[in-house]
Amino acid sequence: MEVKQLKIGALGNFVYVCWDTETGEGFIVDSCEPEKIARETAGLKIRYIFLTHGHFDHTYGCEKLSEILGAKIVAHSGNRSFHHMDVEDGAELMAGKIKIKVLHTPGHTADSICILADKKLFTGDTLFVGECGRTDLPGGSSEALYHSLFQKILLLEDVVEVYPGHDYGPRPWSTIGHERRHNYTLKPRTLEEFVQFMRE
Questions:
Q1: Most buried in the list 18, 135, 170, 184, measured by CB within 10 Å?
Q2: Range of 103's domain?
Q3: What is the pLDDT of residues 144-183, one digit of tens each?
Q4: Whole-structure pTM over 0.90, yes or no?
Q5: Strand (E) positions, 89-191?
Q6: How many domains, the chain?
């Protein structure tokens, strides 16, 4: 699987174009500037546009992008943005020979999902390089984020690559192993300690 990381918009968003090199079928993670994203898909058949959560900087222009590419917009059932397909935790889809698995990772928002494909994890605003998502916006929950980070994401293999939703860290992507060792937000904590940590 090939991954093209696009830094787009005023908030340092990362949008991802991913495809199977054998079939040319692929998917996109998040949306921001539809015409610009569409130009990066020349020669590919994009089947899905995954929305990692409903915040405007990750959904802007997704309907237009869908129209241009003929792709279905996929989001968690709790996502109130326009989309064609609801998914829940554990849902699996295919793009070419790529198996795509949806992980429901609430915390930053209740509808947050991560996309796992070919040992690559697209984390939206749940986990950044060196940081984690904030929980003080409407729908945020430090308790939920704790479970998403420590009982779901950190159960993945160290070699899984981490592709965040924003360029907030010292490098544009990382690995689970690197974040486990160096991300201060992922230091071992009890639930109560993590909630207090997020308050501070």
A1: 18
A2: 2-199
A3: 999 999 999 999 999 999 999 999 999 999 999 999 999 9
A4: yes
A5: 92-95, 98-104, 113-117, 120-124, 127-128, 131-132, 161-164, 174-175
A6: 1
